[in-house]
Amino acid sequence: MNWIIVDxxxxxxxxxxxxxxxxxxxxxxxxxxxCTVNLIAKEKGIIAGLxxxxxxxxxxxxxxxxxxxxxxxxxxxxxVIGKINGNVYNILVGERTALNFLQRMSGIATLTxxxxxxxxxxxxxxxxxxKTTPNLRILEKYAVKIGxxxxxxxxxxxxxxxxxxxINAAGSIRNAVELVKKNVSFVRKIEVEVESLQQVKEALxxxxxxxxxxxxxxxxxxxxxxxINQKAVIEASGNVSIDTIRTIAETGVxxxxxxxxxxxxxxxxxxxxxxxxx
Length: 278
Known about the structure:
Helix content is 43%, strand content 21%. The radius of gyration is 23 Å and the shape is elongated. Helix 1 packs across helix 4. The two termini are 34 Å apart. It is built from 11 helices and 12 strands. Helix 9 links the parallel strand 9 and strand 10. By secondary structure, the chain is an alpha/beta fold. The protein folds into 2 domains: 126 residues, Alpha-Beta Complex (Aldehyde Oxidoreductase, domain 3); 147 residues, TIM Barrel (Alpha-Beta Barrel), CATH 3.20.20.70.
């Protein structure tokens, strides 16, 4: 991860949460006391974001985080993930911010792993999308990797993806691809989103590097794979669920992109409990 960006995210979040200070903690904690508190999993899942969790307290200072697991490990309900020691005020101020990051990232990794497991035995790989929480993309895509999937584009300058509205704006797939080739470096691969077998043929004729089959039914997808016949990398996309991803993979596509892993996940329930003074 780019820690310059991550630090900016953390600092902005801390400022959002305590713009004028923590009036509750400052009223109760009147001395420079030290404490220890446990980090506990309250349900089973995949842990992701421990270094981000630690970084919150490093930025606040006078604290130390010790972890007993690493990103990618499975934890069960009641498992002590780690321990936070140090300045009471800083620990209480950073608690919600640190937990928010860890819970969200672990939730994404957990859901991602479920989808990845459905692909076992097929050649297909799971991709994420740009359907991420604004300003948190770098964290959420990191969590996707921890869950076992592959990152697609991080941003609009990361790769060429010609979608339906681009095609309409250019007049045709051929025109869209030709315009991109004139204006983008030859080292960039070109991906084209298609919705019909006719568009599959047009994308092939335009020499697209990657063809995205968007919202196709299984029979149409199988025919598209036959038409492409390894002349381009194939991505399937559109309303993919945990119940359908296996069937989609068995059509022979190379990648399957799923927006749900970053926009419809359940944050893993994790708490900081049992604070005691030392």
